[in-house]
Design goal:
Oligomer: single chain
Strand order of the largest sheet: 2-1-7-8-9-10
Number of helices: 17
CATH topology of the largest domain: Rossmann fold
CATH class of the largest domain: Alpha Beta
Number of domains: 3
Distance between the termini: 30 Å
Strand content: 15-25%
């Protein structure tokens, strides 16, 4: 089994990266060929998107995007390029953020993740979703079908985070005790209140205490800088770092970890694995020491309770915390849970791909433009990868873009010709809006910024003859037509030859109103409507604007 994980490559920079790395190691231990592909980021100098390839971090080496084209599954953690989404390979989306955090990110104008998660279940290329926290399942089920939502325990590498080993040196800023805060400062939760509780603990109970902050946003000015000055003046401020590449040494050197969180955040998992006592938010099930972070006095009192137990020698948290990590976050059980999701998706996908023996599924895309209909098919139809797609597009610039957009799809055949009522060379009038979108083979079109004075000659293929040579009697055939007026002579040919007997779905965009003499074409529209009843096995759908929906092909 080959699995491609897409995330931003950033050792020691983000908890998500560490989680993805742990997942890959867990899957490899069970025989999965799991690889890391760096989600491209814009180059600072040129703005182009570049993916890091061949970069190493311990056992991880980033792979090129092309590796994904032969993968069995794609696992998305951050962004995913459109051409990768279009590969026809099942995609699994990991929901790393807390629901409220994703909501606040969008509310504050950062990233529209919350809206995206609400919309993505309509994209049938996404076969499953993973949350790493059971607590959020009811919230995610309001947005994602429950049968597609899966729980996988959040991982931590127990070989990396251990109770024994080198210790971080707090130097002249060391305290007794050394309290540490290593949480990211999130939109829905910051360590502000527990920093206040640490100051209160020092004031009321232990004047030698120091709090050391890792993951502090870099800010020489502003409220965070003010907060640091206030706590330094109070004598409680210790070491502070934005990033640190030796976090296992920090946990081992600390006396107590402070966190406002309840769920198994990266911080809680790493601290448990390192065997240090944790004071967390009320309701956290991974430590016996919890308090409401907004109750400054109550949280400070809990810190003191833990410190008194440490001083008295009655604290057994090293063993207890480590066992919690082994039981809940170890890579063996995480790997098994991930592989179970993979197997479920592949089994369902295999069933969806089954076609009646002797029957092909075919999409004849007449007027392919730059691949909008192909993309819609993949987004909306479960077994899109099993369709044989023939896409006709005569416009030279649009065809070049269509080729680029479809190059990863093995089931697409592109034809740089027009489809029409006869095999002949015809004049083609190029439109100069939206990559030639309004180009036509007919005179008199009012839209599309067409240059009628300089037509180009193109090859047209007779639809009836092409069907006789390329379509079999048992094929399930879908035809989409969007050719800016060219549909009218094409439809006459199809009706005259009774070609609709070989078609199961016919999607036609009509353009009569875009011509100077619409009545010339409306009789064809009337004929199509009248004669549709002669073809009970062909469902005909027409519109006058926009990309067709193919969702009814799932029924």
């Amino acid at each position: 089994m080959r699995v491609a994980h897409f995330a931003q490559f950033g050792p020691n920079r983000a908890g998500m990266y560490a989680t993805v790395k742990d997942l890959i190691l867990a899957e490899r231990a069970l025989g999965v060929d799991a690889q890391f592909i760096d989600s491209a980021l814009p180059c600072k100098s040129c703005g182009h998107y570049e993916s890091q390839v061949g970069v190493k971090d311990d056992e991880i080496t980033t792979q090129p995007m092309s590796w994904a084209s032969n993968a069995d599954l794609l696992v998305r953690h951050t962004s995913l390029a459109a051409d990768v989404e279009a590969l026809g390979i099942p995609i699994i989306l990991c929901l790393h953020g807390r629901p409220e955090s994703t909501f606040m990110l969008e509310t504050l104008g950062r990233m529209p993740i919350f809206s995206y998660i609400e919309q993505v279940p309509h994209d049938l290329r996404y076969k499953a979703y993973i949350t790493f926290w059971e607590e959020f399942i009811p919230q995610w089920e309001l947005m994602i079908p429950s049968e597609k939502l899966n729980y996988v325990p959040a991982p931590v590498n127990l070989d990396e985070f251990t109770p024994t080993g080198p210790l971080f040196d707090f130097g002249v800023r060391a305290g007794t005790p050394n309290l540490v805060i290593t949480d990211m400062w999130r939109e829905d939760e910051t360590p502000f209140n527990i920093l206040m509780a640490a100051a209160e603990f020092r004031r009321l109970y232990c004047p030698t205490a120091k709090v050391h902050v890792f993951g502090l946003p870099s800010a020489k000015q502003g409220p965070i800088a003010v907060l640091a000055r206030i706590l330094d003046k109070a004598g409680v401020w210790g070491k502070c770092f934005t990033l640190h590449d030796q976090m296992p040494t920090v946990y081992r050197a600390a006396d107590i970890l402070l966190t406002p969180h309840i769920i198994a955040t990266r911080v809680i998992r790493e601290a448990c694995a390192s065997g240090i006592p944790i004071v967390a938010g009320t309701g956290c099930r991974y430590t016996p020491y919890t308090a409401n972070p907004r109750d400054i006095g109550g949280y400070a009192k809990m810190i003191n309770k833990v410190w008194e137990k440490i001083q008295s020698g009655s604290m057994t948290s090293t063993l207890d915390s480590r066992q919690i990590a082994v039981k809940n976050f170890g890579l063996p059980q995480v790997g098994k849970a991930m592989v179970a999701v993979f197997e479920k998706v592949l089994k369902q996908y295999s069933v969806q791909q089954t076609i009646v023996p002797g029957q092909r599924k075919v999409l004849v895309d007449i007027g392919g433009h730059i691949g909008e209909s192909i993309s819609s098919l993949y987004q909306q139809v479960d077994d899109a990868a099993k369709y044989q797609i023939f896409s006709f597009e005569p416009h030279p610039i649009a065809f070049k873009q269509l080729t680029q957009n479809s190059q990863q799809l093995k089931n697409v055949q592109l034809i740089n010709k027009a489809m029409g009522p006869a095999d002949e060379i015809v004049p083609f009038y190029l439109g100069y809006s939206n990559c030639g979108e309004g180009s036509t083979t007919l005179l008199g079109k009012k839209t599309g910024a067409i240059e009628y004075s300089q037509p180009v000659n193109i090859e047209m293929v007779d639809i009836y003859q092409w069907f006789q040579e390329n379509i079999y009697p048992d094929d399930f055939v879908v035809v989409k037509i969007n050719i800016e007026g060219g549909e009218y002579p094409l439809l006459v040919r199809m009706l005259d030859t009774q070609l609709l007997n070989q078609i199961s779905r016919l999607y036609v965009q009509l353009h009569s109103e875009k011509f100077e003499s619409p009545g010339t074409f409306q009789f064809v529209e009337q004929r199509l409507e009248k004669e549709t009843s002669n073809y009970p096995n062909c469902k005909v759908v027409t519109n006058r604007k926009g990309v067709f929906s193919f969702r009814d092909l799932n029924s």
